Amino acid sequence: MLTSYRATLFFIMGILSGVLVLAGCGKKDEAGPKPGGSPEVGVIVVKPQRVTLTTELPGRTSAHLVAEVRPQVGGIIQQRLFIEGSDVKAGQVLYQIDPATYKAAFASARATQAKAEANLIPARLKEQRFRDLVKIKAVSQQDYDDANAALKQAEADLASSKAAVESARINLAYTRVTAPISGRIGRSTVTTGALVTASQPAALATIQQLSSMYVDVTQSSAEMLRLKRQLASGLLKDNAAAQARVRLLLEDGSAYPVPSTLKFSEVTVEESTGSITLRAVFPNPKQVLLPGMFVRAVLEEGVDDQAILVPQRGVTRNPAGNALVMVVGPEDKVEQRLVKVARTVGDSWLVSEGLKAGDRVILEGIQKAKPGLPVKVVPFGSKTDAASAADQQPSPAKK
Questions:
Q1: Looking at the whole model, is its pTM more than 0.85?
Q2: Claim to verify: residue 81 and residue 59 sit in the same structural domain
Q3: CA–CA dist 158, 189 (Å, integer)
Q4: Is the pLDDT of residue 79 over 80?
Q5: Helix, strand or coil for residue 75?
Q6: Domain check: are 189 and 91 in the same one?
């Protein structure tokens, strides 16, 4: 009986071992590497292309014209004649200052002028009579000279009184504070009943013209020197329009629809920051741009007719921090090549040294591409497309 028990136990153990072996073989078949030769890599062929290089600089907007409204005579504000935040026209009355004292001064000046005009008449007639009498020796030369001097003094008094009238008239007109420019006016700093003085430091209000906007950005002097060297060497070609085109990105990342050109470059370098101020003027017909907004200006620096671009996924770094790419050599063997990258252009690196036209740069299968290893070359993207098509095929039904 013991013998039969052992036989049954060995039989059961044999069946279990067979099942485990079969299961292990199945997993091995599924997980094991596919038989084949060289690993497959996806490559692109380097082709020089024409690229417009740009640089993105931060900046602020400012109004094209700004005027601070200040009184030119002193007095009490009687009325404020505008709505804060509205558009005003040049010459529109904004404030009315109490004109009573200026009307009185104007009337007094006119009275003084009338008196001077009245005094001038007898002085002129006396001078005319004495002029004829002195010729016949009816009056002395001294009498004529006194009459002539009295006429000159009366004429001077009249001229002085006319100037006083004009000054009083101007001061009376200044009691009506008008807008110096057309634009949008901000908040008022004074109210009705406030006392103001002539040419006071605090503005009553500020008017800003928003139909055009300045955008001031800063660029480092080192970047400016680099750009000039590249233009001088022929590496970059200058814009044919002689003025760099500028595009604008708003605070929310959206693009401003109206482009512009660079209008002005500061001639001195800011000592504290080592930067140069650049200015562009943007039309603002819908008044999307407001003074003080933070924006990013995209400036076109120049054109590189023989630019070599490599997608960023194909460029890695060695432990020393140097950029390198994997390329396929003439015998379809992998080569590791150091390159110099100048800047990013979209999702690619602009390579200045290390690659030439016709080089095949590996973008897919880089993990399998070891230096000196022969590989099977396929165009970049075809490997991914084939894998996606295989994934989309329906799996066969299990029997």
A1: no
A2: no
A3: 42
A4: yes
A5: strand
A6: yes
Please provide the distance, in angstroms rounded to a whole number, between the alpha carbons at the two ends of the chain: 43
Query: Quick check: 315 and 339 in contact, CB under 8 A?
Result: yes
Q: What is the pLDDT of residues 295-342, one digit of tens each?
A: 998 887 777 888 888 898 888 888 888 898 889 988 888 888 888 888
* Nearest CA-CA partner of 41 in 391, 379, 390, 386: 379
Largest Cα span, the chain: 184
CA distance 121 to 204: 48
Residue showing tokens 């002129």: 124
Q: Hey, what amino acid is at 256?
A: Y
Closest Cα partner for 258 from 293, 296, 284? Answer: 284
* b/e map 38-55, b = 16+ CB within 10 Å: eebbbbbebeeeebebbe
Tokens found for residue 78: 């009687």
356 and 327 inside one domain = yes
Which residue from 180, 215, 179, 204 is spatially nearest to 290, judged by alpha carbons? 215
